[in-house]
Amino acid sequence: MKIMKLYLKAPWNKRLEIIRVALDLSQSEAAEMCNTNQRTYWSWEKGVNKPIKNSRRAITRAFLVLEEEIFSDENIIETDN
After folding, report:
1. Which 3 state secondary structure label does DSSP give 31?
2. CA–CA separation, 27 and 31 (whole Å)
3. pTM for the predicted model, two decimal places
4. CA distance 27 to 62
5. Hey, what long-range contacts does 45-51 have (CB within 8 A, 24 or more apart)?
6. Higher pLDDT among residues 81 and 33, named by residue
7. All domains in the chain, ordered by first residue
């Protein structure tokens, strides 16, 4: 599972991008699924901002993953998205 190892070594923001691309979604589509706008979603993927707790929950519901599967290696700081 070389791909899984690469995924697990990726930072949280790249994991978010990998999932979106694997689902063949645009940033706008992913943002809508995560109850946010494209600009905020872009800032997450670029690592500019980190999703707050409610946003992380929306991401996990939208992509049907556990929070730890995306954010396991990061100490997410509660900041405004």
Report:
1. helix
2. 6
3. 0.82
4. 13
5. 45/13, 45/14, 45/16, 45/17, 45/20, 46/13, 47/11, 47/12, 47/13, 49/79, 49/80, 49/81, 50/12, 50/74, 50/76, 50/77, 50/79, 50/81, 51/76, 51/81
6. 33
7. 12-71 (1.10.260.40)
